[in-house]
């Protein structure tokens, strides 16, 4: 069983990853921000983010689940569901 994180902790870690690893301005990281349209992610960035989130949660993220993710909020929801 993986560690339990609050929604706020997940959001904070996601923000840290996006700022530090992807050099995204903190001001752009809002729940509605689309990873691909607003934050200029490509498929390789999405895979890199999935790997970093797997390291954080110690849980395997299914590629099918990650394909459905579009926004910051979707990422947080997916991580929350993964940790249930």
Q: Which spans have pLDDT < 50 for at least 5 consecutive residues?
A: none
Q: Main sheet, how many strands, which sense, barrel?
A: none
CATH class type: Mainly Alpha
Helix amount, in percent?
Answer: 40-55%
For this structure, the quaternary state is single chain
H/E element order: HHHH
Radius of gyration: 12 Å
Distance between the termini: 9 Å
Note the overall shape.
globular
* Mean pLDDT over the full residue set: 91
CATH architecture: Orthogonal Bundle
Number of domains: 1
Strand tally is: 0
Please, what is the CATH homologous superfamily? Answer: ACP-like
Strand percent estimate: under 5%
Question: Could you say what the CATH topology is called?
Answer: Non-ribosomal Peptide Synthetase Peptidyl Carrier Protein, Chain A
Task: Report on the architecture of this protein.
Helix 1 crosses helix 2 and helix 1 packs across helix 4. It contains 4 helices and no strands. It has a single domain, classed as ACP-like (Non-ribosomal Peptide Synthetase Peptidyl Carrier Protein, Chain A, Orthogonal Bundle), CATH 1.10.1200.10. With 84 residues, the protein is mostly helical. The radius of gyration is 12 Å and the shape is globular. The model has no long low-confidence stretch (mean pLDDT 91).
């Amino acid at each position: 069983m993986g560690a339990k994180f609050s929604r706020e902790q997940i959001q904070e870690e996601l923000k840290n990853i996006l700022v530090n690893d992807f050099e995204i301005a903190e001001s752009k990281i809002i729940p509605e921000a689309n990873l691909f349209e607003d934050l200029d992610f490509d498929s390789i960035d999405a895979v890199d983010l999935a790997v970093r989130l797997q390291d954080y949660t110690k849980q395997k993220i299914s590629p099918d689940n990650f394909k459905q993710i579009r926004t910051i909020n979707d990422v947080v929801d997916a991580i929350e569901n993964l940790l249930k």
